[in-house]
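Progress note, sequence design subtask.
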């Protein structure tokens, strides 16, 4: 069972859950269904029944530096633009789930995404990142949960995890 604020989510409808939690896929192009970024963000708000969605869409386009791209198809953007746009489509949830947010990005685009994630700390309570990118983990994570063979083998701060020689050797991670 998965608990959210100490309550089971088992009986929650996906629409209700999506007002609290958003996920950004590893391949952000899979998140776009409309012919424009503005349309995708507006649609995400409509589905979640966000009040004042036109104003909020404009705010998100501004926040993620997408205003000049709002009429472009998200599937045709550069890697970094696509990642920023997918964060816009995720809206501003209390909990954000990211699957490999820096995968297949060049150094400049990776830095841009890191800046965007840093900016999101002000508006998102919790960000959970599934990643193999230990540089991202070292730079950004406050808490690290290490999975190995489908099990949690460590849970702690950067220093606790990377300072634990047994864990580092067992799972083959390096800071």
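Output:
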């Amino acid at each position: 069972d998965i608990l959210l604020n100490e309550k089971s989510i088992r009986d929650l409808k996906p629409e209700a859950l999506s007002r609290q939690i958003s996920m950004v896929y590893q391949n952000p192009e899979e998140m776009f269904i409309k012919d424009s970024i503005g349309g995708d963000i507006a649609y995400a708000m409509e589905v979640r029944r966000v009040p004042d969605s036109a104003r909020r869409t404009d705010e998100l386009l501004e926040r993620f530096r997408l205003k000049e791209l709002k009429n472009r198809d998200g599937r045709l953007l550069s890697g970094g633009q696509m990642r920023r746009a997918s964060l816009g489509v995720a809206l501003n949830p209390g909990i954000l789930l990211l699957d490999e947010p820096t995968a297949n990005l060049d150094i400049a685009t990776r830095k841009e995404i890191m800046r965007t994630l840093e900016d999101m700390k002000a508006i998102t309570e919790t960000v959970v990142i599934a990643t193999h990118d230990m540089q991202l983990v070292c730079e950004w994570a406050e808490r690290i949960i290490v999975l190995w063979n489908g099990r949690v083998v460590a849970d702690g701060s950067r220093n606790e995890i990377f300072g634990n020689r047994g864990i580092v050797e067992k799972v083959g991670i390096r800071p």
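The longest strand covers residues 151-156. Work on this subtask will continue into the next period as scheduled.
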